[in-house]
Amino acid sequence: MKQVIAMHGWSGDGSSWHPWERHFSRHGWSWCNGERGYGDRTPVIPTWRTTEPKKTKPCRAVIAHSLGPHLIGPDVLSEATEIVLLASFGRFVPEGPHGRALRTGLKGMRKAIGSAEETAMLRTFLQRAAQPDSADGLPPGPVQKGLSTEGRERLANDLDRLIATRGLPEGLPSSARVLVVDAEEDAIVSPAASRDQLIALEGHLEQPPEHWHLRSTGHALLVPDLLRRVQQWLDRVSPEPA
Asked: What residues make up the domain containing 55?
């Protein structure tokens, strides 16, 4: 069985993966969405199915966007055979002056959650995530549909988690094949954070990660054929089930 566990990033939800799920299902993949439940969706902690024959090498792919890899439990991540990191990072706040300025901005975002400035802050975040494209092209999620009381608390806690990231997600296996997809015009993840993630992966993995640097796109990776390209990469490196 070829399995995918997908995890959205901060302020998103699992509905953003619907086109990916449909496409991957047509190519023989079993799909499971992780869900933080910021809005009206029930939180889901994803787990692997354990129905593979004992003699069959498991094929377990994690596809995660932005903060997503850090939101997957280390016990789940440790069993992945392939990992696709979409506009992601290890340490979000780099060291140095730029990092100090970014940390100040993040603290301002954290303070806005639950206040009268919340809606404006979240809309600005989505605009920055989408640029150079319009935020109108983003799939509707918790920001557009509204946060729940419990979801707002999780959103704040996950922003604290983002600020506190210091390196690669806990549990990331050194044996996994890894694809890193970065965006040339990413206005959320700094070039330093992207570069540091690549360096950390090269030092951690048994084989170097494959790296795609996509031009003319931003953090949200609004690239129509990206799901097809990722599926083809996974099917190229993944063994066929026995």
From this structure: 2-94+161-237
